[in-house]
Write a structure and sequence with these properties.
single chain, 20% helix, alpha+beta
């Protein structure tokens, strides 16, 4: 069902039509093959507490407009913050001037994949309570109460808590006739408990597993996540971690929880299937990809159980939109099917380079001041329709490790050799959890790891994880993205002891 909300009137009251008419008319007069205009307003608020006391509360707002053109087969771009027709005309002229200079050295003519026209589109993300409509005092009170619950537990020395909230509003218009307005809200709460051994000075920490989501303030008041239940369990889990034995390095079977596996998907699949990386366009900064276009349709990425989709439509996804920043409607498509690479994430300029007749809507700029670049969709591993629960999966493992929560990670510039740690690890013996372990990291190459996947969990194990801060491009941009996945079993994976590896 469509969400009943509409874009805020305060944003729609901006001179959107006048800016559009001025910029696009001038671009056409100057001979542009294509031109588009974005007006964006992005409001942010970060609230953080230390030991249940307010440490900082900061609000920010970014408002501006951008004009992008294709002139003489070359991109041109200009951005500003003055929302007047005269400024829109000036930006169109500046964008054409940029394209004119660049055309002299451009060897890769811009060819945009066609897209239907959307003359009057509106989309609003699925949230119930606008966090920016909740009084700061109420938000602080709730965060303080939850922090105090955690801080009062035995053994918890310090608690760091925070919540980041974003409301993003966007107007897009182009010379083909598309006109869209959008509004999306996202939120990221987090609580971290720390304990200290007074004798040795050693410390351990553990944080909540709740992911950032495309929801509103209702996420913190119990909609879809049991905060009080998780915070009540955290101190005992932390105490157990401090007493846990160090892992014996070697090869182990792994049952990986969605709270950890989402990040492995992000790094080894999400980035690797961005076509601009696979073509080498990001080599100078973000890197390339081992999954090159000549391997499309033949690369055995992983186990035949492996089905991965790109998705800009998933409810509550951080990368979910109505249209991307090139006016392309949100879609869902296959990236890996039966373990074989079958697709990429593309925008309108890169789609034709792999024979695609249409973009799958992966252009995004994190503000009006930045040019849209190809960014990640919600890239997700699909559950097995009749797959087991996590408990059933563990019961089938004679000797292994259960991995929960994300922590540090490392992967090479081709997204091939990697190493991941986690929040907590459990020894599996005879199909049962047998206490926590520590100092654990798992290491593999992308194809070996996904090729070792022997069991995929069912729909009941599926969770949408993600991050607010995926980095890419020069100048640097950040983008929010979600990754859904079930629990999964991987056989014979190399396990490192991080304490030994660091020489401690």
């Amino acid at each position: 069902m469509p969400h009943p909300r509409s874009v805020d009137e305060s944003f729609l009251a901006l001179p959107l039509s006048a800016l559009t008419e001025a910029a696009l008319t001038r671009a056409v007069d100057l001979g542009c093959e294509h031109a588009d205009l974005r007006v964006e307003r992005i409001r942010t608020q970060s609230l953080s507490l230390r030991d249940a006391r307010l440490e900082s509360l900061a609000d920010g707002e970014d408002l501006g407009l951008a004009v992008r053109v294709v002139f003489q087969g070359t991109w041109g771009f200009a951005a500003g913050v003055v929302l007047t027709a005269a400024e829109a005309v000036r930006l169109a002229e500046e964008a054409v001037a940029v394209a004119t200079v660049s055309a002299a050295i451009n060897t890769d003519r811009v060819e945009l994949a066609p897209e239907p026209v959307y003359p009057d589109g509106e989309w609003v993300s699925a949230y119930e309570v606008d966090p920016f409509a909740v009084p700061d005092a109420d938000k602080t009170a709730l965060m303080t109460e939850l922090s105090e619950r955690l801080l009062a537990a035995d053994g918890v020395e310090h608690v760091q808590s925070s919540v980041l909230q974003v409301k993003e509003q966007k107007w897009y218009a182009d010379t083909a006739g598309t006109r869209t307005r959008q509004q999306r809200v996202r939120i990221h709460p987090e609580f971290t408990a720390l304990t200290v051994d007074r004798t040795t000075g050693a410390f351990e920490s553990m944080r909540t597993l709740a992911p950032p989501v495309g929801r509103g303030w209702e996420f913190l008041t119990g909609d879809s996540w049991d905060w009080r239940g998780e915070l009540a369990e955290l101190p005992e889990l932390l105490r157990e971690k401090t007493k846990a034995p160090s892992v014996e390095p070697g090869r182990h079977d792994l049952v990986v929880d969605p709270s950890n596996l989402w990040l492995t998907i992000h790094e080894s699949i999400g980035h690797a299937t961005e076509l601009d990386r696979a073509l080498g366009y990001e080599a100078a900064y973000a890197g390339t990809s081992f999954a090159t276009p000549d391997l499309l349709g033949t690369l055995q990425y992983g186990s035949p159980l492996m089905d991965v989709t790109g998705d800009r439509t998933a409810e509550h996804g951080l990368s979910t939109v109505g249209w991307d920043d090139e006016g392309v409607a949100a879609q869902r498509w296959d990236l890996i099917r039966d373990g074989v690479l079958v697709g990429y994430q593309v925008d309108r300029n890169t789609a034709p380079k792999v024979g695609s007749s249409r973009s799958n809507g992966c252009a995004f700029a994190d503000s009006a001041s930045h040019v849209p670049v190809q960014r990640m969709a919600n890239v997700s591993l699909q559950p097995a329709p009749d797959g087991p629960t996590t408990e059933e999966m563990i019961s089938g493992v004679e000797r292994g490790i259960y991995v929960v929560g994300d922590k540090s990670w490392s992967i090479d510039m081709q997204r091939y050799n990697f190493q991941f740690t986690g929040q907590r690890f459990y020894r599996i013996e005879g199909g049962r959890l047998a206490g926590q372990l520590k100092d654990v990291a798992y290491q593999a190459t992308t194809t070996d790891f996904w090729g070792s996947m022997r069991v995929v969990g069912g729909p009941s194990t599926y969770v949408l994880g993600g991050a607010f801060n995926c980095g890419k491009a020069q100048p640097g941009q950040v983008a929010p993205v979600s990754h859904g996945c079930p629990s999964a079993l991987f056989e014979d994976i190399a396990i490192l002891n991080t304490s030994q590896e660091s020489g401690r």
